[in-house]
Amino acid sequence: MLAANEYKSANNRAYYAVFHAVNAVHALNGKAFKRHKDAIGNFNKDYVKKEIFPREIGRRIGEAEEIRHASDYDDFYIASRVESERQVATAEDFIQLVKKYCLEQIERTV
After folding, report:
1. How far apart are CA 19 and CA 26, in angstroms?
2. In whole angstroms, what separates CA 1 from the centre of its chain?
3. Do 24 and 106 meet the contact criterion of CB atoms below 8 Å apart?
4. What are the residues whose beta carbons fall under 8 Å from the beta carbon of 7, sequence distance 6 or more?
5. Residues of 71-110 as b/e, b for ≥16 C-beta within 10 angstroms?
6. Mean pLDDT throughout 41-68?
7. N or C terminus of the chain with fewer C-beta within 10 Å?
8. Angle of CA points 100, 102, 106, to nearest 5°
9. With 80 as the cut, is the pLDDT of residue 110 above it?
């Protein structure tokens, strides 16, 4: 999407990558949330506040959620390439953190 200059779509896909990664972390403890707000809120409470994940990534997730919402629902919102690149970078960074965390948790149970 980013390469095609579809910035609003890139923001959407970056956020959903983050959202599904959050759900993967919750799944390790048998938790599942239907609402985005609940999944993100519980992630912040259970993992960011306890510094299992860095506070900075919690802030970036919140920003990704806001930008995705604006991209999807605000008719007058204009997404920029720079902003979309930042959202994609957030998703990539977070996925790497989640991958590392999940692998560590799985190794503990083996």
Report:
1. 11
2. 17
3. no
4. 1, 71, 79, 80, 81, 83, 84
5. beeeeeeebeeebbebbbebbeebeebbeebeeeeeeeee
6. 96
7. C
8. 120
9. no
Which of 4, 12, 3, 5 is closest to 87 using CA atoms?
12
pTM over 0.85: yes
Q: What rounded mean pLDDT belongs to the chain? A: 95
Half-sphere exposure of 60 (CA within 13 A, CB side): 22
pLDDT of 109:
82
Decide if pLDDT at 96 tops 90: yes
Residue ranges and CATH numbers for the domains of the chain are: 7-109 (1.20.120.330)
